[in-house]
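Homework help board

Subject: predicted structure for assignment chain

Our instructor gave us this sequence and asked us to write out the predicted structure in token form, then describe one feature. I got the tokens but I'm not sure how to describe them. Can anyone check?
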Amino acid sequence: MPTDHGSGPTRRGERGTALVLAPAMVLVFVVLAAIALDLTTVAGAQRAAERAVAAATDDAAGMLDGRAHQVDGAVRIDPIAAERVVRAHLSTADLPGRLEDLVIRCTDTTVDVTARIVSPHIFLRAVPGHQDEALSAPIHVRARLRP
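My token output:
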């Protein structure tokens, strides 16, 4: 028999609805929070790698070819020294993942560095069908020598 406690009549079949929906809602929130944390970690790794690659590229653009300057007065980048600086800088950088697909291109006035970072998932590794690591979008940085 329906009873009225000031909020309207209740039906017998609706008494346990909130009891079932509350844990399901909590589970959905936990899963969404895990996905958000995981994607935030991957995005943070991408930003950290971008900063490290940009710093390495800027340092490499300062590697001037002293021999060429002595011979003909030209101011240009030494490509061997620039590549060595980029590799040394990135090998000692404290990145939250590992760099892959590192490509360094040097001209007389520019240094282009392209790389990707592979960072581990935190929660998504528990989901079947997902890889344990996430590959970031390509990072491309160019530093230009301005004599």
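Reply (TA_rk): Your tokens look well-formed. For the description, you could write something like this. The chain has one domain: 21-144. That's the kind of observation they're looking for.
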